[in-house]
Design brief:
mainly beta; Hepatocyte Growth Factor; 7-stranded mixed β-sheet; 6-stranded antiparallel β-sheet; binds 2-acetamido-2-deoxy-beta-D-glucopyranose; C-type lectin domain-containing protein; C-type_lectin-like/link_sf; signal
Length: 242
Amino acid sequence: MKFKGIIPVLLVLVSPLLYADIVSYIATQQSYLENWFINENIIVLRNQSLIKCSLQCGILDECMSISYHKGSKECIGVTIGYIVQPTSLGYTSVGWSYYLVLDERCPDVTGYVFDKAFNSCYKVHLYDNTLRYDNYSQICESEGAKLMKIDSDEKQQHIVTFLDQFDISNWIYFQGTHLLSEPTWRYDDGSVISYFNWYSSQPDSTTSDTSEYLCMRKSDQYQWHDCWKSMKGAFICELQLI
Ligand SMILES: *[C@@H]1O[C@H](CO)[C@@H](O)[C@H](O)[C@H]1NC(C)=O
Ligand SMILES: *[C@@H]1O[C@H](CO)[C@@H](O)[C@H](O)[C@H]1NC(C)=O
C-alpha cells in the first residue's frame, strides 16, 4: 500500500513576503513488519489518522518511518528506516503496521529510505558474489543514484546506525577512490575528499592495483580502509536531493 501526503511548508524569507514550498512524502507499508510493535528508536507522536501520522513524521528531521495502529490510531515515529526486522527491534503485537516515509523524489526501488537531515535517499545492496566493483556504481546509476558520499561525522554515525540492522560482515563500499600514483582521494566527479574516518593503520597503500577505493566493515566499527577492486562487498547507493 502506498499513499501520498502533501505537506505545505511555509517559509518566511523576506518579510513581509511569504513563499509556499510544497514537499510531498510517500508512506510505503513494509509488510514484513505487519503486526509487529517497534520499541526502539521511537518518537511518540499524536494519536491521529494514518495520513496525518505520516505527515507529522514527514516534517520532523529525525523521523524516517512510522509504526501505526489502525484500531487505536496510535502513531509512533521511528528514527531509522528499517528494511529488515532485527529480533531486538520489538515484539509481535496485533494491529500495528510499519511504513517508511519517503520523499517522492526518491528512487521508486525497494530498499530505499529517506533521511531529511541529509536530504538523502539511500539503499544498501548486500554482498553478491556475481558482482564486481565496477558494477556497484552502474547499479546505483540504473536506480537513478550514485555510490553514497559520506562527508561528515554526522553522516557516518547516521549510516552506521542504519547499517547495524543488516549485520553485514563483508566490506561495504561507498564513494571515493585514488590512483596509487596520486595520494589525493576523490569523489567520482573528481572533487577532493576532505572528510575521512580511517581505521587505525589505514590507509596503507599497496601496489596490488593502480587504484584504491573507500570501504569499511562492521568488525572495525565501520572505520574506513583502502580496498582493492578484487575485494568484493556490499555497497550503498544514494540519491542526494537538492
Ligand atoms: C494514544 O493512545 C494510547 C492508547 O489509547 C494512549 O495510551 C496514549 O497515551 C495516547 N498517546 C498520545 C500521545 O496521546
Ligand atoms: C557487471 O559489469 C560487467 C562489466 O561491465 C557487465 O558485463 C555485467 O553485465 C555487469 N553485471 C550486472 C549485474 O550489472
